[in-house]
């Protein structure tokens, strides 16, 4: 097996990242299929798959629980196991609160808090953090040989990587500490400035919202340590040797620019993308370049004219030349990114006729990824 085959190793975790809509969910699911086909017990942790794909993976009913997806083994080839888990950030967050609360009562106070209920699913970065968190939990359990994680549809591919550090920063935040402080020392520790700040915020957003917020932070008292420790461990897991980043991009200038930026940031963190998947490319028919095809079209037209013939060959060559030109332009757009991730392997996945939303088409992409 070649292509991305070498990445499908026991104990590896593959993180599919890239900008919105490039095909992260599709490639993640296909890599898990490829892993299962390579004999591994592979699990894809997916986020927000299109409905038909969720159906195909049997994900409609049970979020946050991994379940087995039957593969069509009619080709008689040996196979491992395919598992899929649809991430539900809110239940992951709830489970974390329950784990780190000092008592069931504290957990309940947080879970019932209006602010918590509003932000636990929607707060910027929560989805990303919870994806990393769930991955950590699955890695710790050691039930699977290969974990493939799809990252959330963020505008910025970096959100996923930065989420654990952001949570840690939030917990270290001075304002957070000041708001939490009253529960510890009954207002004595709150500076005048913090009180003035809270009063100003209350005027803008309403006292009720502020009360909710204060109650929320107070309810978290004593839990920061657990959360911070966990966020640091998640961070270490993502930075560790067993985690490989698979960059997914399309041949568009904006997604390429973002992928280059993302690669730079990974390098700053001492990591680099281990593979690039250039998705939804136009097909390359034949070996001839567009220039020689254009020449062929012209000479055939000239030949047909001189003989007074009316053949479609020249027009067909011209059409092929145009297709080729599109593919060449895609190559040009991707060139800097390919160079940037070098020596990581680059896998080109063509534009398939239909949506990649059933097991059959995932198998097809899996074959392309490992061909
Ligand atoms: N190679 C391909 N050929 C044809 N269709 C594709 C291909 N790859 C992905 N698609 C389709 O493109 C759409 C977007 O893909 P996908 O959901 O995997 O992207 P994503 O990066 O996960 O998006 P988001 O950032 O919103 O999560 C889907 O409908 C998928 O079926
Ligand atoms: Mg997606």
Task: Chart the SSEs and their pairings.
Blueprint: E1 13-17, H1 24-37, E2 41-46, H2 51-56, E3 67-69, E4 81-86, H3 89-100, H4 104-112, H5 114-122, H6 126-141, E5 146-150, H7 159-172, H8 174-185, H9 192-205, H10 207-219, H11 224-239, E6 243-250, H12 253-268, E7 273-281, H13 290-307, H14 313-341, E8 346-350, H15 359-370
Parallel strand pairs: 1-5, 1-6, 2-4, 2-5, 6-7, 7-8
Antiparallel strand pairs: 3-4
This protein binds adenosine-5'-triphosphate and magnesium ion.
Structure description:
- It is a single chain.
- By secondary structure, this protein is an alpha/beta fold.
- It has two domains: 324 residues, 3-Layer(aba) Sandwich (Rossmann fold), CATH 3.40.50; 38 residues.
- Strands 3-4-2-5-1-6-7-8 form an eight-stranded mixed sheet, sandwiched between helices.
- Helix 12 links the parallel strand 6 and strand 7.
- Helix 3 packs antiparallel against helix 4, helix 9 packs across helix 10 and helix 13 packs antiparallel against helix 14.
- The longest helix has 29 residues.
- The protein is elongated, with a radius of gyration of 26 Å.
- About 2% of the residues have low confidence.
- The site of magnesium ion has 6 residues, from helix 1.
- Magnesium ion (MG) binds next to helix 1.
Which short descriptors sum up this protein?
single chain; elongated; 8-stranded mixed beta sheet; alpha/beta; 371 residues; binds adenosine-5'-triphosphate; Rossmann fold; binds magnesium ion
């Amino acid at each position: 097996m070649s292509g991305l085959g070498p990445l499908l190793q026991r104990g590896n975790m593959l993180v599919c990242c890239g900008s919105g809509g490039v095909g992260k969910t599709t490639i993640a699911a296909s890599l898990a299929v490829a892993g299962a086909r390579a004999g591994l017990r592979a699990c894809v942790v997916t986020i927000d798959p299109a409905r038909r794909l969720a159906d195909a993976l049997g994900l409609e009913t049970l979020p946050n629980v991994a379940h087995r997806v039957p593969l069509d083994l009619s080709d008689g080839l040996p196979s491992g196991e395919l598992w899929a888990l649809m991430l539900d950030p809110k239940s992951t967050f709830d489970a974390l609160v329950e784990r780190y609360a000092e008592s069931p009562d504290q957990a309940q106070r947080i879970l019932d808090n209006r602010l918590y209920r509003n932000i636990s699913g929607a707060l910027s970065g929560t989805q990303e953090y919870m994806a990393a968190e769930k991955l950590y939990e699955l890695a710790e359990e050691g039930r699977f040989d290969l974990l493939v994680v799809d990252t959330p549809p963020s505008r910025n591919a970096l959100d996923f990587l930065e989420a654990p550090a952001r949570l840690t920063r939030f917990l270290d935040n001075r304002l957070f500490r000041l708001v939490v402080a009253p529960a510890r020392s009954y207002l004595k520790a709150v500076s005048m400035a913090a009180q003035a700040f809270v009063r100003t915020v209350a005027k803008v957003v309403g006292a009720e919202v502020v009360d909710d917020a204060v109650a929320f932070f107070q309810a978290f008292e004593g839990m920061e340590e657990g959360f911070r420790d966990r966020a640091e461990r998640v961070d270490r897991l993502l930075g560790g040797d067993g985690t490989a980043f698979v960059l997914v991009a399309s041949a568009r200038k904006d997604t390429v620019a973002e992928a280059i930026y993302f690669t730079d940031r990974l390098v700053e963190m001492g990591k680099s993308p281990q593979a690039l998947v250039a998705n939804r490319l136009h097909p390359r028919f034949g070996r001839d370049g567009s220039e020689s095809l254009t020449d062929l079209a012209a000479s055939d037209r000239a030949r047909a004219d001189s003989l007074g013939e009316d053949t479609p060959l020249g027009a067909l060559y011209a059409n092929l030349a145009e297709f080729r030109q599109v593919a060449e332009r895609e190559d040009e757009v991707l060139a800097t990114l390919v160079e940037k991730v070098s020596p990581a392997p680059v896998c080109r996945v063509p534009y398939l006729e239909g949506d990649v939303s059933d097991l059959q088409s995932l198998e097809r992409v899996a074959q392309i990824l490992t061909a």
